[in-house]
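Dear colleagues,

As part of the handover before I leave the project, I'm documenting each prediction I ran so the next person doesn't have to rerun anything. This entry is a single chain, and its sequence is reproduced below.
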Amino acid sequence: MNVRARRIRAAVTALAAGAAVAVTAVPAGAAATPRSDRPAFLEPSELPPHPASGWYAGDVTAGQPDPLPMCVGEALPSTASHRRYWTEYDTGALQVTVVERSERRAGEFAALLRRNLADCAREVMEQHPDITATQKYYGRLNVEEGAHVYGVHTVAEWGASDIGLFSVGRDGRTVTVVQWGQMGTFAHAQVADFKDTTVTAVAKLY
């Protein structure tokens, strides 16, 4: 497996358990931070159920996730916060949340992320010629200011097949991105469960 292929797969599956090793704990003093600066994140039990494993989670961590999520990662500011999730198998998830200075800026940022996801498959194939990518749009969810769900399937020349689901949602001046990924195709995408997870994530923002 070459380096580029590894990076794409890591972005799709969120590196599962291995990515959580680098997560840093939230400082104890953070409890005094006003609620408006600390959006709630998903709990492991709120992710799409895995048939053979529970979900585990790292701490909420300030800054951009590493590796960056596919297609939306470059747009994430340093003011982002994120949390990684993993199972005992090759399934992982990621939530990234950004609090903007105003609802207008949040709306513009959410629109930018949606544009990036709408063009995700083409961008992946341009940047990584050894990857074939296809995608689907699963529609808008009626929660707060709305959320949108996308699916991206990637196949590497060396044989790996991975499916990723992505959503972008907003509540006021807060925007969140949720990513879920595992080995497989669109047939293995837990779309209905992921939509429920997205609704929960956006409803918890504040």
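Strands lie at 56-57, 61-62, 81-86, 91-99, 131-141, 147-156, 161-171, 174-183. The first strand starts at residue 56 and ends at 57.

All the best with the project,
I.
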